[in-house]
Write a structure and sequence with these properties.
Blueprint: E1 7-12, E2 15-20, H1 21-27, E3 30-34, H2 39-55, E4 61-67, H3 72-84, E5 89-98, H4 100-106, E6 113-115, E7 120-122
Helix pairs in contact: 2-3, 3-4
Length: 150
């Protein structure tokens, strides 16, 4: 099933129209970030954010995230665009948001960051030039909630 994209067929007074599922969801202002964060996925997400802002700068955008993380520079391009566009960006974790995926999940508008009940979120120590290496000695479940639909 990998690589296959479902098609949605809509009936109207003018006949049938078919969409790939992601185009149909984009009409509902839903963007998917699935898989590693890299230059290609960042380019797609940034383009969709800018497109939706141009369509209606006053209506919220939803970003659904299922990502193991990835490139910092690609993730920062998404983050900067989320902060730049006028519509508020709601984020929702479906499955996993790890590393840069978790960072982008946290970048959603205040009060509009969600996680489905069985999703997992993982934040780790930054990698890179720091000499000190602080460690997280314990982990715990911060909060369990029943989330309403986003």
């Amino acid at each position: 099933m990998l690589g296959m994209v479902p098609i949605v067929i809509e009936q109207s007074g003018r006949g049938e129209r078919s969409y790939d599922i992601y185009s149909r969801l984009l009409r509902e202002r839903i963007i998917f970030l699935v898989g590693p964060v890299n230059d290609q996925t960042a380019n797609l997400v940034v383009a969709q954010l800018l497109f939706l802002e141009s369509e209606n700068p006053d209506k919220d955008i939803s970003l659904y995230i299922n990502s193991p993380g990835g490139s910092v520079s690609a993730g920062m391009a998404i983050y900067d665009t989320m902060q730049f566009v006028k519509p508020e960006v709601s984020t929702l974790c479906t499955g996993m948001a790890a590393s840069m995926g978790a960072f982008l999940l946290a970048a959603g508008a205040k009060g509009k960051r969600f996680s489905l009940p069985n999703s997992r979120i993982m934040i780790h120590q930054p990698l890179g030039g720091a000499k000190a290496k602080p460690r997280i000695s314990k982990s715990r479940r911060v909060k369990s909630c029943t989330c309403a639909s986003a």
